[in-house]
Amino acid sequence: QVQLVESGGGLVQTGGSLRLSCAASGRTFSSYTMGWFRQAPGKERDFVAATSWSGNTTAYADSVKGRFTISSDNAKNTVYLQMDSLKPEDTAVYYCGATPSRWLDSRYEYDYWGQGTQVTVSS
Asked: In whole angstroms, what is the distance from residue 62 CA to residue 118 CA?
């Protein structure tokens, strides 16, 4: 059974930091790229960041460049999203996904998703 389990969300003030984790299990994901997306109420699920397990390939949405960092720990089958300098507009449910595609920023290319973790940034 394939599972992606996110954790680490919560409530933080503007300018604060959070680190999200995504633990992958149930199959070999070495050939997959792992991504983070977010969805605010009434909006579409938008790309945030993605990484290969080697770390050789990473990508970020313009809105988070310089503030968010994606990384992976192969030994733990876990992907992280370090979020710094958080803003109220970062408030959303954050989802971890896995894709075999090179189109890292398209949610339609992702085969697996986690259940999501809520991030709320207060002003």
From this structure: 21
- pLDDT single digits (tens) 59-77: 999 999 999 999 999 999 9
**Tokens representing 109?**
């290319």
Under the phi-then-psi rule, with left for phi > 0, alpha for psi from -120 to 50, and beta for the rest, what region is 56? alpha
Q: Rounded to whole angstroms, how far apart are CA atoms 123 and 3?
A: 34
**pLDDT tens figures, 37-56:** 999 999 999 999 999 998 88
